[in-house]
């Protein structure tokens, strides 16, 4: 059993894929995209390590969970632990799995790595490729238009257009001492949000 090294979770959101979803952001990325929305999750360091079986049970204990979205960080650096998580979930319930990666699908397939091949059989939708800010077209659940949405199963084909054309939105989840932004943010969202907060607190 390999532990999953997690930067952050959100137990329930509607902004990162169809339906109500649990979200995991893994810690550690091998890329360094300009304009990365989560640079604090790039360092490959130990964050919160969790047993995949226990995490699967927790995900399925959240009322109304329809799917899991995995982002980061780079999920494919933890393919073994995530594969175990996905397998545990699917053994218990046929929920949707969406995964972001900075690798292209072609690069992943070219590795001829049985663990990568295994995880690809468990993912419904893979959103691939590094983030390129100059190709951010301000729509959909992908960060920039070079990223390809691969429907590896037919589960989300009826909602296919949402992945590339949906009007973006985010949820702000308040914690005791911080706020977590969940979703692919609209262009200039951080500036607009800061202005709104400054205005409200004057
Ligand atoms: S692949 Fe994702 S997490 Fe990694 S640097 Fe690029 S945008 Fe950031």
Automatic annotation (TrEMBL):
Its EC number is 1.97.1.-. Its cofactor is [4Fe-4S] cluster. Pfam families: Fer4_12. GO terms for molecular function: 4 iron, 4 sulfur cluster binding; [formate-C-acetyltransferase]-activating enzyme activity; metal ion binding; ribonucleoside-diphosphate reductase activity, thioredoxin disulfide as acceptor. The keyword Oxidoreductase applies. SUPFAM superfamilies: Radical SAM enzymes. It is an enzyme of class 1 (oxidoreductase). Transmembrane segments: none annotated. Keywords: 4Fe-4S, Iron, Iron-sulfur, Metal-binding, Oxidoreductase, S-adenosyl-L-methionine. This is Anaerobic ribonucleoside-triphosphate reductase-activating protein.
